[in-house]
């Protein structure tokens, strides 16, 4: 038995999607880890920048301290220079005093003559002597000859020469003195200019010293304030830096913890990915093994059939293989729900899949199904008039959609009794979605979805109805699917609602056309359609075709009975101790035995439409007997389900024979 390729591909795709999802989660976690690492590095850079800024501030403080020290040294040098200037000013003042004293001495010396100069400069005496000499000369002229005039003249001449020399000397001395005075005045003026300049320089130096002192004081105060401010900023930044560092350290610790958790999650995801890859490899290995086995089995089949690759099966072989199976299945004329009949056809088509015939494609399988339609369902149109766009009916799903809509169109006018039965149905406390679907689906099969859904909603308890209405199913199939999902989501809890006893509805008998359709399938060409004529023809024709004496175990299919007879549920309340049931024979209705050992009937074996007279195994029984035990604190409820099967339902060789079984709910 080979593994379905579609299933393996779906399994591989699921594994690939799971691996991709895990890899996507891993990539997302890795990106988050990288983002955390980038944030940590950013915080470290911020801390480093704060440290650099603090170091820069410290360097600035050091530079300012060095400049302040230089200013202090410069101020000390200025003070020393100021002292030197003061000493120089004192020296200049001493020089000025000396010069003043020298001037005074010179002035005194100019007014005071020495003895030699007094002798040499006795000009008035000389003049007097000259005047006396001139008087004697005049007297000599007048006749006085008592003296020698030559001597007098020589004396006058000598006096004049002496006076002239003295005058020349005095003039030269005056010139020299005037030059000395001019020189002294120049020196004095220079000295006064130097004194004034020195005084100005001293005033300027003092002003500069005062200004420098003020500037140094202001600089000192500013530096002190700045140092105090920067110290406060440094303290604040140090405190803030410590706080920020503490917060960052805490954040780093948190991020490290998250990183550790993410690494653990990443490791777990990798382990899950490795496990998924291992499972995928394991399943793929199994698939390879099954594929090899399938190939071997096919080769064995080919070898057994002596069918070399050149003589592979064709579409004729496929139809030759499937024709007996399709012949056993009656043509479809609405005798059963379309889904059931479609599933039978699909099962027959799937039997040809191992032959791998390319000609037996989707269109060929669909055509085989179309050929099984008869009566009101034939002929099948080329395009689906019920679907949007009228697509061509060339695949099995499209054929199923057309068959469902056609079944509704054909059966909706003759199923009023099903509507009345549907109105009286409820979702019982003991129901499951599967049992409820099995009981209700035949009633709504021929009804449009828009008409059937309101009845189905009203049959549910309030909590289930609300949740199913929220799901908003569009079709009856979607309704049963949502109901099953919601019921399983509630862990299969029983619906706490008042159980309403079902009303046993007896369908009104309608004209049953199964006899006519069966007679037509058996090539009936008569005119009469009464029951007696049709029964005689059918019995005779079956006897001719099948041969042997026939004995129908089930009730006659020609009795008027509704095609939509429902299951009758009879609820009995019994004491807990009396859980044993008394079984009755389904054939004669008497107690003490069952249909298997009923004396009124022979044991027969089911073949196609009739039962041949052969020994039947006791296990091959068609009757179904269900015992349901629901334990309660005081009593036990036992339900007996008598399923009424439509007499018009076709029987075939695939029918599963029913067996006795018991179901007990604890």
UniProtKB/TrEMBL annotation:
Ranges annotated as spanning the membrane: none
Limits of the CCHC-type domain: 585-600
PROSITE patterns: ZF_CCHC
Protein's UniProt keywords contain Cell membrane: no
Keywords: Coiled coil, Metal-binding, Zinc, Zinc-finger
Coiled coil spans: 19-116
Top-rank lineage group of the source organism: Eukaryota
GO MF term set: nucleic acid binding; zinc ion binding
Protein name: CCHC-type domain-containing protein
